[in-house]
Amino acid sequence: MAVSGGADSVSLLLLLHDLREELQLQLSVAHFDHQLRESSADDAKWVEALCNQLAVPCVIGRPDQDSESMQQGGIEESARKRRYHFFQQVAERHKINWVAIAHTADDQAETVLHHIARGTGLKGLQGIPETRELTESVTLIRPLLQVNRSELIAELASRQQAFLQDESNTDFSFTRNRIRHDVLPYLKESLNPQIDQALRRLAKQAQEAQSAIDELARNLLDQSLTNSESLRDGLAFVRLSIPEMKKQPVAVVSAMFLKLWTEKKWPRKQMSHFHWSQLTEMATTKSPQGLALPGGIQATCRRDVLEIRLRSD
Amino acid sequence: MAVSGGADSVSLLLLLHDLREELQLQLSVAHFDHQLRESSADDAKWVEALCNQLAVPCVIGRPDQDSESMQQGGIEESARKRRYHFFQQVAERHKINWVAIAHTADDQAETVLHHIARGTGLKGLQGIPETRELTESVTLIRPLLQVNRSELIAELASRQQAFLQDESNTDFSFTRNRIRHDVLPYLKESLNPQIDQALRRLAKQAQEAQSAIDELARNLLDQSLTNSESLRDGLAFVRLSIPEMKKQPVAVVSAMFLKLWTEKKWPRKQMSHFHWSQLTEMATTKSPQGLALPGGIQATCRRDVLEIRLRSD
Questions:
Q1: Which domain holds residue B246?
Q2: Is B290 assigned to a binding site?
């Protein structure tokens, strides 16, 4: 599991340590020292000492010659990438299948609010997932995602367990800190003291709605393909049955096209909102009859078939 | 159309007045004087004078012996009910089919944020609809829902058209005013200057997702009913095909049960989140085999059929 030394991850470490026999866990700790603060080496030593005390193996990671992909994006994003990359490496090296991360219900509410404000749409509203596959054999899990930070801190206090106060080791985000310390307290005071729960409920509903639409889009793609091998890499066109697409709600048809573009590795980011809605319109009303799309892709209606192909010119 | 005298509704009045020949509109104005402020009679006179100047008929409404249903809820909610009831009455009396209301893109963003904070879930995230049926013959429309208030105010300034500053005639909501004047400006400054657009995009996506799920739930209810007359009023049970329900995503099955409860007029509000999820679980896994629900409703799995009935005791 990942331990920064903050209240959340120290709590999760103690919890998993308590349960190690019952759940037959082989517990290991990974701590990433980003070396962005002077005191970060002390934090790493503190985590090592705690692990020694609990007799849990501990691996400390530090930034090395990073590949270029790690350095893309802002400081926050690249730090996050480095950290998760390190966790994944440790897991693979030690044949560990589950990496536990101590995100809490508070992190969830903060993330949902952050995504609402940034405008990441319904997808972003889903917030942090309970589990995520890092590789085929390594899965990230978040066992504390339903637990409030205040409960964890109370439990640590009752056990007289210390923890590190400065969590910037795991969270460089200026915006995230502002959301935690300013924005959420402000919204609680001015709009609803229970806004955390409201945000989490919204995330859950968005997850359910999005996964329903994804599932239906997946089925629709299978059912409306008239040339069954057309998702095979290399084939430069697909043919889709218009009557099949007409049976489904617009949101499902749109989601299906997004899936198609992803699978064909067509340039998704160049597609504007206008392009997607024109395409959905074609799929259900056969109008317009022809449409030129980014990346040299041409969509054409022929009777009951919508053909989408890469232009050869 | 409804005119409070504020910038939004004065703009819409001028716009519809400009377009009256082109669109062959027969324009009438309705203004509701809630008589909750001393100056409200002056506002009504001001609106009447503006209408005289434009040669548009104007009807002023005032609270009278209200029916009890109008008095339920807080001051804001009951004022809103009275106002819309008045608009509907005027429309019916004058055989008007469309009631235009001057809600703007800013109102939409404020509403979405308000609903997020209150925790009204994905349904609330949809915000204000573009149209809504008041009665069979009267439809409410919101032609300015994509337009920013600042554009309207700029246009009024360029036409040197005055408007009433105090809009509390149409909007008593303390929370709403706080969202407009404090919360949104604060979020723009601290998180994203474009948060309005982000909120509106979210509303649109939530509308699309919700209408997809509603449509699929409607279809599923039709397809899974094994006794085709079971939605007929008075029949105390329904039988639903488990294999049909199993084909659909969980969110669609849940939405279908909500529709069923609404149509059968079973006590929906007494159903907890736990009840709904137990029922959805039964519909897809046949477990538990029996379930007692609020309002004396019993759900039972018999082979491939889920039977839901009112207990006779």
A1: 211-310
A2: no
Contacts of B248 in chain A (CB under 8 A): 212
Q: How many CB pairs under 8 A join A and B?
A: 113
Determine what percent of chain B is predicted with pLDDT higher than 70.
91
Do the bridges between strand A290-293 and strand A237-241 make them parallel or antiparallel, or are there none, so unpaired? unpaired
* pLDDT tens-place string over residues A242-275: 999 998 998 999 999 999 998 888 888 889 888 9
Q: Are A198 and B119 within 8 A, CB to CB?
A: yes
Q: How confident is the model at residue B264 (pLDDT cuts 50, 70, 90)?
A: confident
Residue A83, token pair as written in the block:
């950290």
ipTM of the complex: 0.79
| Measured CA distances, B286 to A208, B99, B256 (Å) | 21, 49, 17
| Residue A196 in domain | no
Rounded CA separation A5/A11 (Å): 9
Q: Do A119 and B197 touch (CB under 8 A)?
A: yes
Residues B240, B305 share a domain: yes
Nearest CA in chain A to B207: A251
Same domain membership, residue B161 and residue B12: yes
Residue A170 is predicted with a pLDDT of: 44
